[in-house]
TrEMBL record:
<dbReference type="InterPro" id="IPR018482">
    <property type="entry name" value="Znf-C4H2"/>
</dbReference>
<feature type="compositionally biased region" description="Polar residues">
    <location>
        <begin position="1"/>
        <end position="10"/>
    </location>
</feature>
<protein>
    <submittedName>
        <fullName>Uncharacterized protein</fullName>
    </submittedName>
</protein>
<feature type="region of interest" description="Disordered">
    <location>
        <begin position="1"/>
        <end position="41"/>
    </location>
</feature>
<feature type="compositionally biased region" description="Pro residues">
    <location>
        <begin position="15"/>
        <end position="29"/>
    </location>
</feature>
<feature type="region of interest" description="Disordered">
    <location>
        <begin position="159"/>
        <end position="211"/>
    </location>
</feature>
<feature type="compositionally biased region" description="Basic residues">
    <location>
        <begin position="191"/>
        <end position="203"/>
    </location>
</feature>
<dbReference type="GO" id="GO:0005634">
    <property type="term" value="C:nucleus"/>
</dbReference>
<feature type="compositionally biased region" description="Basic and acidic residues">
    <location>
        <begin position="171"/>
        <end position="190"/>
    </location>
</feature>
Length: 211
């Protein structure tokens, strides 16, 4: 089998068109020579100082952030401390008021205790006097009173006269009379029921017709 070779025909455009020339080849870039690729890169300026300053700046930002955070904590603690100090001052003022009130109550309690002791002493004195009076009554009743009573009752019976009331009957009568007078006069501090004496009932005012 015969080998067929491809043939390329340059296209010159449509018939009657002016011939076109192929574009020129692109310029070849200069290849670096071996001597130029081997030269070291030289840094411009003091790059060591720049790196040190950059590291110090980063460290400064780090410490500044820590300082700012700790400052916020300190300010918050101071605000809480001031608030608690104010609370302590308020509590002290309240304690002073309570101490004054306690002192007043202690004074009142001491006065009450003194009055109570006086009342106890007065009660004991009166009870002792009552005991003496009861003993005196008993001695009188068992002494001349009984003797005189028997003679009076005997003589009144012989004269057909009713016997005299006993001492207990007389005491009961006096007690009943005292309670009756107290009920009729009314207890002090209470207003009697009903209208006051001499008051009159006011007549009701009838509304007048507007016509």
């Amino acid at each position: 089998m015969a080998n067929h070779q491809r043939q390329f025909v340059q296209y010159t455009g449509p018939p009657g068109a002016p011939p076109q020339h192929p574009p020129p080849p692109p310029p070849q870039s200069e290849q670096p020579t071996a001597s130029s690729s081997r030269q070291p890169v030289v840094a411009v300026g003091d790059w060591t100082k720049s790196l040190v300053d950059l590291a110090k700046t980063a460290e400064l930002k780090k410490h500044a952030l820590t300082l700012q955070l700790q400052t916020a904590h300190i300010l918050a603690a101071h605000a809480s401390l001031e608030q608690k100090a104010k609370s302590i001052q308020d509590i002290k003022e309240q304690k002073n008021k309570l101490d004054s009130e306690r002192q007043r109550l202690l004074t009142c309690l001491r006065q009450v205790n003194e009055d109570r002791d006086k009342a106890d002493l007065l009660q004991a004195t009166i009870e002792h006097e009552c005991t003496d009076l009861r003993e005196r009554i008993t001695r009188i009743e068992n002494g001349e009173y009984n003797q005189a009573r028997r003679e009076v009752d005997r003589l009144r019976a012989e004269l057909k006269q009713p016997p005299l009331p006993s001492v207990q009957s007389t005491l009961d009568e006096r007690s009943s009379q005292f309670l009756t007078e107290k009920r009729l006069n009314g207890e002090p501090g209470k207003r009697p029921r009903g209208r006051p004496k001499g008051s009159k009932t006011r007549p009701k005012v009838q509304p007048q017709d507007s016509n």
